[in-house]
Design a protein that fits this description.
Belongs to the AHA1 family. This protein is α+β, with helices and mostly antiparallel strands. About 30% of the residues lie in helices and about 40% in strands. Strands 1, 2, 3, 4, 5, 6, 7 and 8 form an 8-stranded antiparallel sheet that branches.
Length: about 140
């Protein structure tokens, strides 16, 4: 697995960016870049599960490995969801289960830096390299 990083500076306080990232209405807007109808189901507390779902109720489930409000949200991805149901591990999910996706906010003189670092397997690298900058542009647009 490879680690890739995406960074943007947003002219907004980190509290505003945090809300943009994790509140339902804005989460759906910036993640639509990946899949129209995207949503997340969680209480957003450290140790809780998150279901990342598309409009067909398919997606993946993860656990919130670390959460410090207005500072960081780290996900540990575990497996797939089909028709709203968590699926048992299989050969495909074993390749990426345990991978991390980390969001970190840092205030700077020029605004707030949003840094996203994720573990990625080769078959998804091109997709996320194309889509993540577009998603971060949407976060920036919604936050400023």
């Amino acid at each position: 697995m490879e680690k890739i990083t995406f960074t943007t500076t947003i002219n907004a306080p980190k509290e505003k960016i945090w809300k943009t990232l994790w509140e339902d209405a804005t989460y759906r807007k910036w993640t639509a870049v990946f899949s129209e109808g995207s949503r997340a189901v969680s209480d957003w507390k450290e140790g809780s599960k998150v279901h990342f779902l598309n409009e067909n109720n398919d997606g993946m489930y993860s656990i919130i490995d670390k959460c410090v409000t207005n500072e960081c949200m780290h996900f540990k991805h575990l497996g797939n969801i089909k028709n709203g149901q968590e699926q048992p591990q299989d050969e495909t999910t074993e390749n990426w289960s345990g991978s991390m996706e980390n969001y970190n906010l840092t205030e700077t003189q020029n605004g707030t830096q949003l840094n996203v670092e994720m573990d990625i397997i080769a078959e998804y690298k091109d997709y996320f390299t194309e889509k993540f900058p577009l998603a971060l542009e949407k976060v920036k647009e919604l936050s400023e």
